[in-house]
Amino acid sequence: MKAKLRRLLSWEGLLLAILVLVAAVNANLAPAYVSLNNQINLFQLSIEKIIVALVMTFIIINGEIDLSVASVMGLAACIVAVLFDRGVPMEWAIVVALLAGVLCGAFNGFWVAYVGLPSLAVTLAGMIGFRGVARILIEDRSIGGFPAWFTALGQQPLIGPFPFSLILFALLFTLALIVLQYSGVGRLVYVIGHNAAVARYSGIDVPRLKLGLFIASGLVAALAGVLLAARLGAVRGNTADGFELDIITMVLLGGVSIFGGTGNLAGVGLSILVILNLRNGMSLLNVTGNVQTGVVGMLLILSVLLPNLAQMARERWQRRAVQRKEVQTGVETSVSS
Amino acid sequence: MQGAPVLEMRDISRRFGSTQALAGVSLRLYPGEVHALLGENGAGKSTLIKIMTGVHQPDSGQILLDGRPVRIGSTLEAQRLGIAAIYQEPLMYPDLNVAENIFIAHAGRGPLVDWGKMYREAEAILAQLDVRLDVRQPARGLSVAAQQTVEIAKALSLQVRVLIMDEPTAALSAHEVEQLFAIVRRLRAQGVAILFISHRLEEVFDIADRITVFRDGRLISSAPRADVTVEQAIRDMAGRSVEQLFPRRHTVRDEVLVQVRDLGRQGAFHGVSFDVRAGEVLGFAGLVGARRTDVGLALFGIAPADQGTITIAGQPVRITNPRQAMRHGIAYVSEDRRGLGLSLPMSIAANITLPTLRRYLNPLGLLRRPAETDTAEEFRRRLAIRAPSVEVEVGKLSGGNQQKVMLSKWLNTRPRLLILDEPTRGIDVGAKAEVHQMIDDLAAEGIAIILISSDLPEVLAMSDRVLVMREGRQMAVFTRHEATQERVLAAAMGQRDAA
Question: Using the beta-carbon criterion (under 8 Å), do A194 and B343 form an inter-chain contact?
Answer without folding.
Answer: yes
